[in-house]
Amino acid sequence: MSTPRLVGPARLAVLVSTVLIGIGLPLPATAAPAPAASREDAPLAVSWLERAAAAPDHISYHGTQIVTSWGPQGSSSAMLDIVHAAAQGSEISLVGSGSSDAKSFVQRGIQGHSPAVDGGPLALLKATYQLVYRCCTDTIGRAAVLVEALRGDQTLAARFWIDQATGLLLQRQLFAADGEALVRATVFTDLEIENGEFLGHLPPMLPGGSDSMGIGGVDGLRTQGWTCTSELPASLELYDVHQDTAAGVLQFSYSDGLFNVSLFQQRGALDPKAVAGYGTMGTPGVHVRYGIPSYAVWSSGGIVYTLVGDLPPDVLARVVEAFPHEVPARVTPVRRMGTGLARIATWLTPMSALSWKLG
């Protein structure tokens, strides 16, 4: 198990740029749209993505991953040290942080039973996008295949680099609606396949105290006054519901197979201290912070809403507008919402287990 390395923000920014150039990834302003000749999924593309979704169940590894997000705040990057044991889960450390809580453990399979690729449910990915097989390439010294996801208008939505030897996902890029602007990249800069990896002395496990309610109980939640929308803008679909057993917070998980967002709801009023340092957006009463991940927080009708996800800023704004917004005449802090929500989240990606340290 490796010791976290100290990397300052400036060095990290340089390293991210160097990595993106060095491994042939296009920078945001120069990413080129990909043509597509057919709207049918390529069988090879589907089979490789299915293999990528299953690979962590039987492949153990140790690697360094860089996650970068581009938005109104500029770029935000994080370097993660990941030790993954197929039989247990992933120990994830935020490189460069001296904080004792910059390390966490995500148990394999705790995020749901449906196959997923980098957090995006594979079933929704296949339902939403056209999947194209781009054959063979290499990255970080490993032979890989390239798979692309195209929107209905044939703009490029995502690229996946999948390791030919193991099926592990090596890199993923997500693009804005124009198919050119890169909005998020997840890149392994080094990867070692381990035999019989076992994690001892596990760090605190996240999430905790959260029960899956499934989506079968959505109608019942509506009758109790909760906002339960099955679909959101940008083809985001509700696929799971959790409830924190201690605080009673509900978590509604949405995805289109690429982008993921969770909506937390708790009865009460927003504590202004919870959104100190947040900015504003077009919708009145909404507090926002862009990063890895991005947050949008507001209260309406006696419910505090918190959106946490990796959506592009324009899509995040559209999603926020889709929910009730009743600006309270008087704000009385009765419950503290914000950072604590990230801690109880049943997160969609291993990286997000450290979301409160990244955002």
Secondary-structure blueprint:
Blueprint: H1 9-22, H2 43-54, E1 60-71, E2 74-85, E3 89-94, E4 103-107, E5 116-117, E6 120-121, H3 122-128, E7 130-139, E8 142-150, E9 156-163, E10 169-175, E11 182-194, E12 210-212, H4 218-223, E13 231-232, E14 236-244, E15 250-255, E16 260-267, E17 279-280, E18 287-289, E19 294-300, E20 303-309, H5 313-321, H6 339-344, H7 355-358
Q: If you had to describe this structure to a student in words, what would you say it looks like?
A:
The protein has 359 residues and is of the alpha+beta class. It has 2 domains: 6-27 and 37-193, Lipoprotein localisation LolA/LolB/LppX (outer membrane lipoprotein receptor (LolB), chain A); 210-322, Protein Transport Mog1p, Chain A. The protein is built from 7 helices and 20 strands. A hairpin with a 6-residue loop joins strand 17 (279-280) and strand 18. Residues 1-37 and 331-359 have low confidence and may be disordered. InterPro entries: MucB/RseB_C_sf (IPR038484), MucB/RseB_N (IPR033434). Residues 1-31 form the signal peptide. Residues 102-195 form the MucB/RseB N-terminal domain.
Can you give keywords for this protein?
359 residues, alpha+beta, outer membrane lipoprotein receptor (LolB), chain A, Protein Transport Mog1p, Chain A, 2 domains, 9-stranded antiparallel beta sheet, 20 strands, disordered C terminus, Sigma-E factor negative regulatory protein RseB
